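Supplementary Note 2. Why include the ligand at all?

Several targets in our set were suspected to adopt different conformations when bound, so apo predictions alone were not considered sufficient. For every target with a known small-molecule partner we therefore ran a joint prediction. The input for magnesium ion is given below.
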Amino acid sequence: MKSKHTADNEARLISLESDLGYVIERNQLELYYQPKVFAETNQIVGGEALLRWNHPEWGIISPNDFIPIAEKTGFINEIGKWVKKTACKQNKAWQDAGLPKIPISINLAATRFLESDLISHAMDTLKETKLESQYLEIEITETFLLENEKVVFSVLDELRNLGIKIALDDFGTGYSSLSSLNRFKGKIDILKIDRSFIQDLSSSHEEDSNFIVKMIIQLSHQLKMSVIAEGVETNEQLTMLQKYNCNMIQGYLYSKPIPAIEFAKLLKKDKLDPLEYSN
Ligand code: C2E
Ligand code: MG
Ligand code: MG
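The joint prediction is reproduced in C-alpha cell form.
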C-alpha cells in the first residue's frame, strides 16, 4: 500500500500538471526579487526575478517544483514571456517612481533558446515597456550552455547586440573545467558562482577550502567578466569573498527573495546591512 505521504505527493503532482495551463489567466504567478549587492559598499546594484506560483490549494510553490513540469508540457514558453514582460514592466515602474536604476535579471529556461521568437520577443518587450536594454539581464545555466554551445552562443551574440547582459548561472555545477571559461570570453558578462562552493568557504582552512572560488574569481576577471557569489549566508563567507575581490554578493545574508513591494523599500534604502542568516 502507498503511504499517505506518497499518495499526497502524487495527488499534488497531478493537480499541478493540470493546473499549470491556467496559471497566467488565473493570475497565480508572482515574481519575487532578490537584491544583488556590491561587495565593497553594501549598495544594491541589481536584482534577480524569481518565480513563485500562488496555488489556491497548495500554497506558494517553488519554481524547482513546477518549472520542470512546465518544460515537459511546453508551457514554459508562455511562462517565460510572462516573466520577461512582468520584470521589465516592474523595473520601469520603479525607475519612473524615482528609485535607483538597476538591472534586473530573469532566468531563461533551456528550451527557450531553441524557440525562434526569443530575440524578437525580447525586442518587443523592451519597446513595449520602454525599459532600456542595459537594465535587463538574462541568466542561463552552465549545463545547458555546455550541451548546446553552438546554438546558444549565436543567440547570446544577438541578445548582447541588443545591449542585454548575460550571466552564467550555477557556475561550477556543470562539470566544465576552469579552462573552458576561456571559451565564454566575450559571450558572458557575469559569472555566478554556485552556492555549493560558497557553502564551503572558511576562514580557518583558507588554502584548502577556498582555492576553487579564489581561482574562479581571478580567472573571470582576467577574461573581463564580473563575478557574483550566490547563496551567501554568513559574514565569514562575505569576508572571504571581499578578500578575493568578488564583485557582487547575493544571498540570505542581505535578503531572501521578496515580493515587489518589499523590494521597492530596500531599493529606497540603497544600502543593505549584512545580517547573518540562521535557519
Ligand atoms: P537560481 O536562478 O540559481 O536562483 C537562486 C536560488 O537560490 C533561488 O531559489 C533563491 O531563492 C535561492 N537562494 C538565494 N540566496 C540563497 C541563500 O543565501 N541560501 C539559500 N539556501 N538559497 C538561496 P528559487 O527562487 O527557489 O529558484 C530556484 C530555481 O528555479 C532558480 O535557481 C532558477 O533556476 C529557477 N527559476 C526561478 N525563477 C525562474 C523563472 O522565472 N524561469 C525559469 N526558467 N526558471 C526559474
Ligand atoms: Mg538565477
Ligand atoms: Mg543559481
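The chain has one domain: 30-269. The beta strands are 29-38, 44-55, 59-61, 104-107, 136-141, 165-171, 190-193, 226-229, 248-249, 258-259. Comparable summaries for the other entries are listed in the accompanying table.
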